[in-house]
Write a structure and sequence with these properties.
Elements: H1 10-19, E1 49-54, H2 73-76, E2 81-83, E3 90-92, H3 96-100, E4 106-111, H4 118-127, H5 152-159, E5 169-172, E6 177-178, E7 181-182, E8 198-199, H6 222-237, H7 248-262, H8 264-269, H9 277-283, H10 287-300, E9 305-309, H11 322-347, E10 354-359, E11 363-364, E12 381-382, E13 386-391, E14 399-401, H12 418-428, E15 436-438, E16 444-446, H13 455-458
Parallel strand pairs: 1-9, 1-10, 4-14, 5-8, 5-9
Antiparallel strand pairs: 2-3, 4-13, 6-7, 10-13, 11-12, 15-16
Helix pairs in contact: 4-12, 10-11
């Protein structure tokens, strides 16, 4: 269900070959430049920002947005369902706020791909591509490398590099690492670290939370920093050799650091104490709720791609105690945080220009199971059918796309892949469908590698 990794028509091939240099060991600096066509898919350019809420570990579709109340108990699970603002549509009983706000959301119940492994599926979810690492004997063979395809923020930064001190992407509140395993798909991959999204590691709910990287050293004001930079530039002018490629990477890092330190609006985004206590309470005084609040502030500062991960690598990996974890922690925090987020975005009209995507890397097995040595049942990995949420930036709320079978195991209607989500995100951000990336071997990759999910905008039935 994933689209071909190298899919070029004649026009795309000409664009790609003109952009690359045979034999180069670095991505072409002009590979992102493309001819913009006038015939663009629906939704093109309607999003100024995209917020990806990643439910790492994979939430159960049956126990969230695709309940099957008439299924046998070993499939149905322990939860009841509740009606929503969409006639005839029900969701899990532990999503009461979401049920009231379904007019804002489009639910896709037939997302699907082939990868049932966390690491491989995360790369697919965050890049729209399968990992380039061949399947090995263990997860250790599939960890993050610079051969990975760029994630959304990394690719956007390459296509549209910025010089205003505002990063193209920010990920928070933690990097996905477990022991020796680092989940692939979290950085700019073969494009190199220059285009990596900015990673925030910290708990925004901690009263001592602050971003040290943006703090001036004692005694250094913005005016003094500007004077220091002018002095450095004057010294560089007397040494022409410093302008060569040997120091270009260092100069890029210096310029980025300077722009970040002087971008006042970005700095203020991390000052959550500027929010009222009532506002912070609405999001939930927990790591995830405050991460969504911080995400909203980053969007207000003009960050085009923000990724907020709910939990560590396997927070939603409910092999054991699926219903206890969902009922007591995961669903209440998700329900509260998303309600507060969409309330605020709608009140400020930012929902009209912000695309929201809520998804895991896959779903859970239809059949309940108990792992060896455990006594509390759960559900295992399942990528054949799972659910995702979409809202904002022209997407029509109040609709459900796709229908699964009686066990939420397989799609009965059209399914969509992570490649389609990737294309929908970049189309929403106004990236031309002919945009091409060149990898270190000068191989061309169409950035929009799937199909735009036009039903999200038209409301047409599947």
């Amino acid at each position: 269900m994933l689209k071909p990794l190298y899919g070029l028509d004649r026009r795309g091939f000409l664009i790609a070959t003109a952009a690359g240099v045979a034999g180069t060991t670095l991505p072409s600096p002009t590979a992102g430049s493309t001819e913009v066509t006038t015939d663009q898919p629906i939704g093109f350019g309607q999003a100024k920002s995209v917020l990806i809420v990643l439910l790492s570990g994979g939430p159960s579709q049956l126990d969230t947005w695709d309940p099957k109340p008439d299924a046998p108990a070993e499939v149905r699970g322990e939860f009841s369902n509740r009606s929503t603002a969409i006639p005839g549509v029900a969701v899990c009983e532990h999503l009461p706020k979401f049920a009231e706000q379904t007019n804002r959301w489009a639910i896709i119940r037939t997302l699907a791909h082939r990868e049932h492994n966390h690491l491989l599926a995360t790369h697919v979810a965050l890049t729209g591509r399968p990992t380039p690492i061949p399947r090995g004997g263990s997860d250790l063979d599939r960890v993050e490398t610079r051969s990975d395809f760029p994630n959304y923020a990394g690719a956007l930064d390459f296509i549209r590099p910025r010089t205003d001190g505002i990063p193209s992407g920010v990920s928070l509140p933690n990097y996905l690492i477990e022991g020796p395993l680092t989940w692939p798909g979290q950085h700019s991959g073969f494009l190199g670290p220059k285009h990596d999204p900015w990673q925030i590691n910290g708990d925004p709910n901690d009263e001592n939370f602050q971003l040290q990287a943006l703090a001036m050293r004692d005694g250094v004001s913005r005016e003094r920093l500007q004077t220091r930079r002018q002095l450095l530039e004057a010294l560089d002018q007397g040494h022409p050799k410093l302008a060569g490629s040997e120091t270009s990477a260092l100069r890029d890092q210096q310029n980025l650091a300077y722009n970040l330190l002087t971008a006042g609006k970005l700095n203020q985004s991390f000052e959550l104490e500027r929010e009222t206590q009532e506002t912070r309470d609405r999001y939930g005084r927990n790591k995830f709720g405050q991460s969504l609040l911080l995400s909203r502030r980053l969007i207000e500062a003009g960050i085009p791609i923000v990724q907020a991960t709910m939990g560590i690598v396997q927070t939603w990996d409910t092999h054991v105690d699926n219903w206890g974890k969902l009922k007591n922690t995961l669903l209440p925090q998700l329900d509260q945080g998303l309600a507060a987020l969409t309330d605020d975005l709608q009140a400020s009209d930012l929902l009209n220009e912000t695309m929201l995507v809520v998804m895991g890397e896959f779903g859970r097995t239809p059949k309940v199971s108990t792992l060896p040595g455990q006594t509390i049942p759960g559900r295992d990995h399942w990528a054949h059918a799972y659910s995702g949420l979409f809202a904002g930036a022209g997407i029509q709320g109040g609709q459900v796309l796709g229908q699964t079978d009686t066990k939420a195991a397989y799609p009965l209607t059209k399914s969509w892949s992570p490649a389609d989500i990737c294309s929908t995100i970049f189309n929403g951000l106004g990236v031309d469908s002919n945009a091409v990336l060149m990898d270190p071997l000068s191989r061309p990759h169409h950035l929009l590698n799937g199909n735009v999910i036009t039903n999200l905008y038209t409301g047409a039935p599947v």
